[in-house]
Amino acid sequence: MSPDRIPWRTIKGLAWAGMLLALYDYLSRLLGIPLFCPFAGDGCDIVQNSPYAVLVGIPLALVGVFGFGAYLVLAHLGRRSGPGSHWPLRGLLVLNLVEITCMAYFIYLELAVIHAICSLCMISAALNLGLTAAILRGFRTGR
Description:
Elements: H1 8-31, H2 43-48, E1 54-55, E2 58-59, H3 60-80, H4 87-114, H5 119-141
Antiparallel strand pairs: 1-2
């Protein structure tokens, strides 16, 4: 795979956007500041204050910061790796499959259990889908 043909900049850009969004969510929770929820009124705060927003004592927003951060690290390593190195892109794919699976479950919880939509969560899900497309494009164009 040629590092020049893989959309590393796109992956990094989407990862930065996701990490900043998750960091905003986490800091808002940490400081007790209501979230700006552009499309769902108070849905973001309802979701953020639900018991499902914490996993074994760790806020999911903080997990998101580290998840999107991992995309950044892998994309940086992939850009720096040689043409024969496939592991960064494969690592991105595995990370993305985990993230997409988790996002699908969280969207289910919002719709079926919490009965509130968090538009910031939906933006995060859209960023993850964008990452999926960029990673798959990397596999297609990098061969």
